[in-house]
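ARCHIVE CARD
Drawer: 12
Card no.: 0347
Subject: one protein chain, sequence and derived structure
Cross-reference: see card 0346
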Amino acid sequence: MEQNIELVKLAKTGDPHAFAQLYECVYKDLYRFAFISLRSREDAEDVVGETVLDAFTAIGGLRREEAFRAWIFRILSNKCKDKLKEYTQKYVDWEEVENELSYSEEWTESVYLRKLFGELGDEERLIVGLHVFGGYTSREIAGMLHMKANTVRTRESRALKKLAARMRAAEVERNG
């Protein structure tokens, strides 16, 4: 931890090698967050790249060295939210996708679960994805998304209940 604070101090003076070392410390978590949020390897790589570029140019303005990790995740979170807004303008006809593919019942359920997960609100998808797939705690997610941990837990619980209810409804519909 103390070593990272020294690296942040050096990076704030414009040292690219210090910033590169900081980046190495957080890259995997940045990528994991972006991938879970966006569900696209290419888009995750793009937003992480944009985040790092923005962070490198703005690090001189970072007030507290110990806040580096939260600060860079805040930048990434905003980039992911912007990208998710772009997604809302894209339309996917899931029925058409399902009709064009031939697959097992297990594959159908997997596709359907992904479809339902995609129908969650952006914030719900971020919270559930970070917890379930990324392994982050509600406290860590709260820090990334600038919320209270209790709020994160409540929103995650509601989102998971929504998914469960939709899965039950689909099961009833499928079985007649």
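Annotation on reverse: The first helix runs from residue 2 to 12. The domain at 2-87 is CATH 1.10.1740.10 (Rna Polymerase Sigma Factor; Chain: A).
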